Amino acid sequence: MRTWGKTIASLCLAGLCAPLAAITATVAVAAAPAAKAPPPLPPLRTERVFLTSVESPGGKATALFGFWFKGKGKSDKKPTIIAMHGCGGLYSSVNKEKIEFTPRHIAMARALTDAGYNVLFPDSFTPRGRRSICQETLAQREASSANRRYDVQIAMRWLATQDDVDYARIGMVGWSHGATTMLAALNLAQTDVAVRKVQPKAAVAFYPTCTPYAGSRTPYKPAAPMLILMGENDDWTPPEACESLEKKTEGSDTGITLRLYPDTYHDFDAPGLPIHVRMDIPGVGKRGEGVTSGGNADSRAEAYREMLKFLKDKLE
To answer: Which of 123, 258, 278, 288 is least surrounded by CB atoms within 10 angstroms?
Structure first.
C-alpha cells in the first residue's frame, strides 16, 4: 500500500503549494483562454481541518481530514454543505505528485460559497492510503460507501463544534461513489442513522448507484429530501434504479426527486472533460464495452441551477 506522508507534506490546491502546518491554502482558478480573456476569478481560500473517522462500531479509527471553505456573507452562522467526492477522490490525476483539487470540486466550492454556504470536503481516501478507488473491485474497497457513511457522521459532529455553522441547516452534495455514500448516510433503516439527533435537511446526489436500495426488501426512506441529478445516457450508474427509488418514495416528506438530462453521461458536471470510454472500471457496464464519461456544459449549468434552487428551498 502506498503511503502519502511525503506527498501531503505540502498542500497544492490548483497549483499553489503551502506547508500543511499553515492554516490556510489558496485555490486559484485560471481564466479560460479567449480572444478577450475575462479578469481572473479571485482565489478561494481553504483551511485543512482534522477529523476522526471510525470504520464501524468498535472498529479501528482512521485519522481523517478535510478542507473547509467559508461561505460569503456577513451572517455569523451560515448553512453548511458536506461535499462527498467520488471514486476518483478529491484531487487531480494530471500531476499525481501534487495534492491539487479537480476543476469539478473547485467549481462546486466556488458555486456554494458564492451562494453563502460553508463547505466541508472530507477526504475519505488519502488517510486510507488511496488516491482513487475507481479501478478497485467492490471486494477490494476499504473505503466502501457503507464505511464512508461514518465519515459523514464524523463530519456532522465536527460541524457541531463550529461557531460559524448553523447546525439546523446542514445539507449534503456528493458525486457517484460519494453520492452513493450519501444514500447510505441518510438511510433511516440503519440504526446509526436513525438515532442521529440532528439530520441533514437536504441532499443533492450527482449520478449515484441506486441499485442496492431500489431492490431492497426494506423500504428506503432518506433522512432528508434528496435531489438526484443524472444523465439519460449514463451507463456507469444507469438511472433506471434511481427512477424506481424515486417512485418508491413518492408522497414522503423526505422523498426523492430525479432529474435526467438528455445526451448526457457520467461525470457530466466535470468542466472540460471530453467524452471518452473507460475500460478500467470493474463490475459496471456491459462486458467488453466499458463505460462512458464526459462533461456536458449545458447539463452542468442546468444541474447547478436546480441544485442551488433546491438547497435554497430546503435550507433557507
So the answer is: 288
